[in-house]
Amino acid sequence: MKILVLGANGLIGSTMMRVLATQTDWQVLGTVRTRHNLLPHVPADRLVVGVEFTNPDALPRLLLEEAPDVVVNCAGLTKHLPGGNDPIPALTLNALLPHRLAELCRLAGARLIHISSDCVFSGKAGNYLESDHPDATDIYGKSKHLGEVTGDGAITLRTSTIGHELDTRYGLLEWFLAQTECKGFKKAVFSGLPTVVLAEVVRDLVIPNAHLTDLYHVGASPIDKFSLLQLIAKTYKRDVIIHADDTFVIDRSLNTEKFFEATSYRAPAWPELIDIMYSNQSQKS
């Protein structure tokens, strides 16, 4: 089986590439924009360099030349980047690209696995179902909702992630590990997964089950950010002073019962998830 990971140098994509490649009977390729984005421990011949998704010819050419059986779309703008709330790049990459990709995959006979975000929700309610109406008010959240694709060999996994980055500190984990003192929000609720665990779910449960062609919430039990940071500090043996703060209130936790019914998957408890993430860090570089 030939698998193509789009956005292989990002937070999710770099881990996805590495984890999927452990399946020795799969040929796993990944796209990166420039040679500066080459990945540690990934042979150069497994990377497709120079793919620019704003170029309308890039996707058809890519699928024609590589002829993948499965495409895992980890590409897109994140809210941490300057363009994350800029309407033109956000809509181009987060909203339009996945639909164009889904149509091209359908024509090519390839399956599409698209990664979406819990940021499609405002966080006012929590325990969101797939049937709940996305109510994000920012450009990023709206663009991610517009980009969700299902049916005809396409599946969207709505989730949130935490994990090690290659050379940036945009995400919560790398930011926290660089601190000596910070706030921990006791009323900010998170139910995502470490990137390595999400990649294992895709490898072990999603790719082998071609009948999954819908929208699914994938995540762990809800945990507040204060408790999450305490667990990280303990596991990583970091002496960071964390000040409890209950002024910031947001709950984007996802109800994952639909995915459980389809796959019987339950994420481990948070102490185990953090242990897995910690053990995986030595493989990131």
How would you characterize the overall build of this protein?
The chain has 285 residues and is α/β, with parallel strands linked by helices. The chain has helices at 11-20, 58-66, 87-108, 139-146, 172-177, 195-206, 225-236, 257-263, 270-280; strands at 2-6, 27-32, 47-49, 70-73, 111-117, 154-159, 161-162, 181-185, 188-190, 193-194, 215-217, 223-224, 241-245, 250-251. The longest helix is centred in the middle third of the chain and has 22 residues, at 87-108. Helix 1 (11-20) crosses helix 6 (195-206), helix 3 runs parallel beside helix 4 and helix 7 packs across helix 9. The relative contact order is 0.14. The protein has a single domain (2-166, 191-220, 252-269), classed as NAD(P)-binding Rossmann-like Domain (Rossmann fold, 3-Layer(aba) Sandwich), CATH 3.40.50. The strands form four sheets. It has a seven-stranded parallel β-sheet, sandwiched between helices. It has a three-stranded mixed β-sheet with strand order 12-9-14.
